[in-house]
């Protein structure tokens, strides 16, 4: 467990001791940043203390996390994180980039980036002896919570919109969570979750509400640093493309890089580029307006994982791009589908939200924001099996033939 000092409000800057607050700032409702004692960490650890570790999971960074070891050796909670980083030649050719990587979060135990947050939140729940952990989710966060909870015997309750993809609902049920479908959207499920947590004393995992979600998500930044940044010349800056819905993933990536910078282990802060679907672009709208005022939208996009009316971590998401010299881009659903197909052709199956980041990179290249010499990493946040209906829109239907050689020859001759 890291040197956990307390919390700091991201809006007003007020600081709290660990036991004084739990979720958001009581003064203004702002998201809380977990505060670590960087000086104490520097005194006890060096870069080599992490690079020499053999544990292939996010728990290799336990000294930088504000939770104790959750145990569960030999279970899925011990295999969250440390996802592969690919460098497909086909994408280098397509983009014209000399250095480009894809970090595939679809290889997490429940097949999405959300396993990182849920693993750490479940670790916190175990530490505080919470009886029930609850969350609202369009599918991935709920599946992650259900899977990580099942690994250590933690009871989980999930509220999901009834329109969530069937594959994601199946995961929730298979992992043994109590699943309640809400006849409404994600934002309504979010509000109901908070009300239920307050009423029944449940521990709430909600993204952009529970400060420990960012602490889980920041571990992806640690892995990018260890695998790529440490191998680059100090004067170079990596550009990282991240799909954005409620804003918590890009906020988490930013927090991870800020931790490393404060520790003196990162020479140059990577540039963070947030990518939103045109139909769900509340954060991009505020960023491009040059302010931090998040105005809700009526989200309409096939990328259900980033379809959010009111981003709950929007302010920190804006700062993640602004403070690192990055930008926000928006892409159409058609561009997202094209990105799914492009990634599929190099062996990476991404769900719509995951492919959104790659669609954003292609737009940045077309606008000259990224050049061939820029080192770039794209984060694929989830596996395409999460949403087969969307994936099937990107490919022609497979022909059905009689089981004869002549029938096969006719197809091959087309």
Broad CATH class of the domain at 77-111 and 213-394: Alpha Beta
Radius of gyration: 21 Å
Question: Which oligomeric form is depicted?
Answer: single chain
| End-to-end C-alpha gap | 61 Å
Q: Please report the total strand number as a whole number.
A: 13
Which strand-content bin applies to the residues? 5-15%
Helix and strand content put the structural class at alpha/beta
Strand order of the largest sheet: 4-5-13-10-11-12
Helix share bin:
25-40%
SSE arrangement, N to C:
EEEHHEHEHEHEHEHEHHEHEHHEHHEHH
Main beta sheet strand tally, sense and closure: 6 strands, mixed
| CATH fold topology of the domain at 77-111 and 213-394 | Rossmann fold
Poorly predicted runs of 5 or more residues: none
Counting DSSP H or I runs of 4 or more residues, the number of helices is 16
- CATH architecture name of the domain at 77-111 and 213-394: 3-Layer(aba) Sandwich
Tell me, rounded to a whole number, the average pLDDT.
Answer: 95
Q: Could you say which overall geometry the principal axes of the C-alpha atoms support?
A: globular
Structure description:
By secondary structure, the protein is α/β, with parallel strands linked by helices. Helices cover 38% and strands 14% of the residues. The protein is built from 16 helices and 13 strands. It has helices at 38-44, 48-51, 89-95, 114-128, 140-152, 166-174, 186-200, 212-217, 219-227, 248-262, 282-289, 314-322, 333-344, 352-366, 388-391, 405-412; strands spanning 4-9, 15-16, 32-36, 85-86, 100-104, 132-136, 155-161, 178-182, 203-204, 239-243, 271-277, 328-331, 376-380. A 6-stranded mixed β-sheet has the order 4-5-13-10-11-12, sandwiched between helices. The chain has a 4-stranded parallel β-sheet with strand order 8-7-6-9, sandwiched between helices. It has a 3-stranded antiparallel β-sheet with strand order 2-1-3. Strand 6 (132-136), helix 5 and strand 7 (155-161) form a beta-alpha-beta unit. Helix 10 packs across helix 12. It is globular, with a radius of gyration of 21 Å. The model has no long low-confidence stretch (mean pLDDT 95).
